[in-house]
Specification:
This protein has 99 residues and is an all-alpha fold. It has helices at 2-21, 28-34, 38-56, 64-73, 85-98.
Length: 99
């Protein structure tokens, strides 16, 4: 389990690094990603990992807000944005594009 979690975490880190390193200054989304702080990247990374886990284990995206609350209780700093099931579906689309 630990090894699988490490692999998922390293994939997410590579994806975030790739997204932050390829910046087309004409694209607003690329400029925004490049301005993320390390804390914001970490928060998004935790959220993407949660969505990835939901999708991999065939759980509904309606569990995403509950899973975020659980992460907060565990002491993870996941921020206050992107906590809805609609966001989870959007994250899943982006994860599918990378894989």
């Amino acid at each position: 389990m630990q090894q699988a979690q490490h692999i998922c975490r390293s994939k997410m880190q590579r994806m975030l690094r790739a997204a932050c390193s390829v910046v087309d200054s004409r694209q607003p989304a690329d400029r925004m990603i490049a301005k993320f702080t390390e804390e914001q990247r970490s928060q998004l990374g935790h959220q993407f990992l949660s969505v990835h886990a939901l999708a991999k284990h065939h759980q509904p995206f309606s569990d995403y807000p509950w899973l975020n609350n659980l992460d907060r209780l565990k002491g993870l700093d996941i921020g206050t944005q992107h906590g809805t099931e609609m966001t989870a579906a959007e994250f899943a689309l982006h994860i599918a594009e990378v894989k």
